[in-house]
Write a structure and sequence with these properties.
mainly beta; 14-stranded antiparallel barrel; 3 helices; two-stranded antiparallel sheet; single chain
Length: 319
Amino acid sequence: MLCLAVSLCLLLTDQSDNQPIPTHEVVNNAQNNVEPHQPMQWFDVWQRSFTDSMDFTVSKFDGLFSDGSHTKGKAKAEGRIQLSWEPRTRDIAETDLRFRIRVSLPHLENRVDLLLSDNEDETQSDTIKAARSPSLGRQDNTTISLRFRPNINSHYSFRVGAGRRDQLYVKARYRDAYAFNSHWAMLYDTEIYQYTRDQFGAELGTSIQHVSSNNNVTRLNNRFYFRDNSNDWLWRHEIQHLYPINNHNALVYSFMVEGLNKPTYQVEEVYTGLRWRSNPIREWLYFEVEPFVLWLRSEDFSPSYGMALRLEAYYGKGE
């Protein structure tokens, strides 16, 4: 059922853009299988219509770079939309909207793509809203950027865009992966950036991943952020364990600790949760239930109990 989990350990990156594979993508790979022919439902019509309208818009944008000589392929958009209700003991009305859109531009040799998301930090794409650190100003921020790569398989990428409280920024990133064997692999990355108000910043991250013989996946993620405007480091350590149940269901356990290095190396928050992810209807439509416990320094580390309920739809991939 899960031979692709082993290949995941060997690759660890999405070869189209050299991005680390987020946990939700790992679970998607573990669950997806070829569906038998099914009659069209209203949600299929919505997904197809949304994909077609996005493709029409981006093809017009890509056409601005055409020299009129010959076609170089069709511009396409792909991404995901996620709606969440994340009530907890201190905020029962917490809701969240996550989205990410990636547009490939064939008339620019597929070396430039357009990115639009609710957050420029892909490493927190699976985190509940209350657990996302406000220190970097990443909550409720729409980010749009153009990403350039020297070639389509390059480990280097460069971005210029706007985000994080309406600031302009430029960013340079390097990412690569190394497979020790068929079970162990490591992803490492570093990036530097300059924001108009937050000034200079840098990040360093490593992720160690193990795929067991029974296709369970364990990941240890470590990340450090340097912030010039406050002259300190934000750090995050996280362990995740993926247990695939069958082609349509999987469990993901997460434990995360985040903190600062000033005034001392201190913990700012602790999070643990168990996520059940399922796609029983369509391979592009997911449901999630995640009970969790969150401890925040701002709340004197008093435990806050919650339950995240999510609906997530993908579009564009495989179309």
